[in-house]
Structure formats: C-alpha cells, structure tokens
Amino acid sequence: QVRLVETGGGVVQAGDTLRLSCAASLRFFSNYALAWFRQAPGKERELVSAINWDASSTYYVDSMKGRLIISRDNAKLTVDLQMDSLQPEDTAVYYCAAKLYNWGTAVEDYDDWGQGTQVTVSS
User: Fold this and answer.
1) Above pLDDT 90, what percent of the chain?
2) Is 123 exposed, middle or buried (CB count within 10 Å of its CB: 0-12, 13-18, 19+)?
3) Phi, psi of 90, rounded to the nearest 5 degrees
4) Rounded CA gap, 4 and 29, in Å?
5) By CB neighbour count within 10 A (0-12 exposed, 13-18 middle, 19+ buried), where does 49 fall?
6) CB atoms near residue 5 (< 10 Å)
7) Among 34, 58, 76, 85, which residue's CB has the most CB atoms within a 10 Å radius?
8) In whole angstroms, what is the distance from residue 106 CA to residue 103 CA?
9) pLDDT tens digit sequence for 92-121
10) Calpha distance 50→70 (Å, rounded)
11) Whole-angstrom distance, CA of residue 96 vs CA of residue 114
C-alpha cells in the first residue's frame, strides 16, 4: 500500500516562500506521476502542480505560474513543491497524490493520497 506524508506547511506572511515536501513509501517510485492538490474551505480540490514519472512533463496551475517549482528525487522517494510570493488566496490544505506514469488533472485520476498539510498566508 502506498503511503504519502506531506511536510512543510505553516503560517506565513504574504510574499513569503514555502517548500512543501512529500515522502512516499512506494515500490517502484520512479514509475509514478506525483501531484500537489489544494483545497480551500468551501471550495473543490484543485490541481496545483504535477510531474510525470520521468520528469519529462510538468503542470502548474495558471493562478500560481511563475511562483512554483515542482521537483522529484527518485533516490530519496520525495517530491517537493517550492511556492514563492505566497498570497492570502493560496491558503488551503495541500495534498500530495500519486498515480502511475503520467499526471492527470482530475482528483479521480489519482489512486493514493496523503493526509494534507495546512498552508495559511496572512496579509
């Protein structure tokens, strides 16, 4: 069974940077696409960023383009998301998710999820 554990959330000021990390206990980790979703109160869960199994393709949500960098380390079995210039509207619970090979944009595309980490950005 896949287990994903997110770390790195917290309370920051607008304009600050946070780096989220997701540690995966995945056999054949290198075969998985990894993604970060977020869910704000009263809103649907949305895809923020994703990376293919071979890092050949990445996705960034339009509202955060230019402020995100996703990276994976197959030796450490981790996927990180650096978020720059955070804004109050970025406040949400951020979730790590995994599926085989290529990333998808829908929640239903992913088979495995972490418990989430809270990111709160104050103005």
Assistant:
1) 94
2) exposed
3) -85, -5
4) 11
5) buried
6) 14
7) 34
8) 9
9) 999 999 999 999 999 999 999 999 999 999
10) 7
11) 5
